[in-house]
Write a structure and sequence with these properties.
Layout (H helix, E strand, L loop, with lengths): L2 E3 L5 H7 L4 E3 H6 L5 E6 L5 H12 L6 E6 L11 H7 E2 L1 H4 L4 E6 L15 H14 E7 L1 H11 L4 E15 L13 E11 L2 H5 L4 E7 L3 E7 L4 E4 L9 H11 L25 H17 L8
Parallel strand pairs: 1-2, 3-4, 3-6, 4-5, 6-7, 7-12
Antiparallel strand pairs: 8-9, 8-10, 10-11, 11-12
């Protein structure tokens, strides 16, 4: 949240130079506060797990947030009961008349498919196009980030020689940008994907800024210059054990997969992994909600 201080306080200019969020008393008096409305397009197969992971993060700020979950009407979910979807989820047809302050589009384990071959691609495109005028800021995660880069900016994904799987070190390019405010210069984040995005294509696109990158995992945090879209290519929302469960699941199925890198102590799958990315996860979600949603969204949508 911003700090509210007098216009003439000597420290004010120094704080602004350091990019600390300062609000004048006059503006603070005029501020109206209401709950934020966040739409979560949950594309993950284990929807209840993803719900918990995201709600834990969205609930860790001083802001009141009203959540609406969205399910793809053009896709039949196999890992969740119909009763759960009927009770807790909406379809796009049911919400497209509304305005939302923020939206999250999750990842999905379908990266082996060309985007146009995904059975709900047309519906997702309609949602992404609708969001341009009906959502203040959109946070895209993993495959959702790749889908946004492809649809909005024409940047396609490419297959990796092996799965990007583990916890990797990342560096920020500009610590004064609001989204990564408070981040360490180097921080960890988990990845689990078979495809990636070209760093060169992102850097060459005049509409995008690469905020964080990993020498091993590639592009990580991408921000559109109009601050409308935030693309996160990894899974900061993952719990400490999520990669372990993915590894054990694939291993049990006979899928050839390496042990997640930099994850298990001593690379020993029998040992409990540690969550070394939690603080930056909370910080990113808090920064997104505050700077890109709460501070930018109109009090009353026209």
């Amino acid at each position: 949240m911003p700090i509210n201080i007098h216009k003439q306080l000597p420290a004010r200019q120094l704080l602004k130079e350091e990019k600390i969020f300062v609000m004048d008393e006059d503006k603070a008096i005029l501020q109206d506060i209401r709950p934020l409305s966040i739409l979560i397009v949950n594309l993950m197969p284990e929807k209840e797990r993803t719900e918990l992971q995201l709600l834990r993060l969205l609930g860790n700020t001083p802001l009141q947030v009203n959540i609406t979950f969205l399910n793809m009407a053009s896709h039949e979910s196999k890992n969740i009961s119909k009763n759960h979807l009927d009770e807790f989820y909406k379809t796009f047809e049911e919400v497209k008349h509304r305005k939302f302050d923020g939206m999250i589009i999750t990842g999905a384990p379908i990266e082996h498919l060309p985007f146009e071959k995904v059975n709900y691609w047309e519906e997702l495109v309609a949602i992404m196009d609708w969001s341009k005028k009906n959502v203040t800021s959109v946070l895209h995660i993993c495959w959702g980030a790749q889908a946004a880069l492809y649809h909005h900016y024409g940047i396609d994904k490419h297959e990796l020689s092996k799965k990007c799987f583990g916890v990797f070190s990342h560096q920020t390019s500009d610590s004064t940008v609001k989204l990564v405010r408070g981040f360490n210069d180097e921080f960890n984040a988990p990845h689990s994907r078979y495809t990636s995005i070209s760093v060169e294509e992102i850097n060459n696109n005049p509409e995008l800024t690469l905020l964080a990158v990993s020498e091993d995992a590639g592009a990580f945090i991408i921000l559109s210059n109009d601050e409308k879209h935030i693309m996160i290519t990894g899974h900061l929302e993952y719990d400490a054990t999520t990669l372990a469960e993915e590894y054990q699941r694939d291993h049990a199925k006979g899928v050839e997969v390496d042990i997640p890198e930099n994850y298990f102590p001593n690379d020993d799958p029998s040992q409990a992994p540690l969550n070394t990315w939690r603080s930056h996860t909370h910080l990113l979600f808090s920064n997104w909600l505050n700077y890109y949603v709460y501070q930018e969204t109109p009090y009353e949508w026209e």
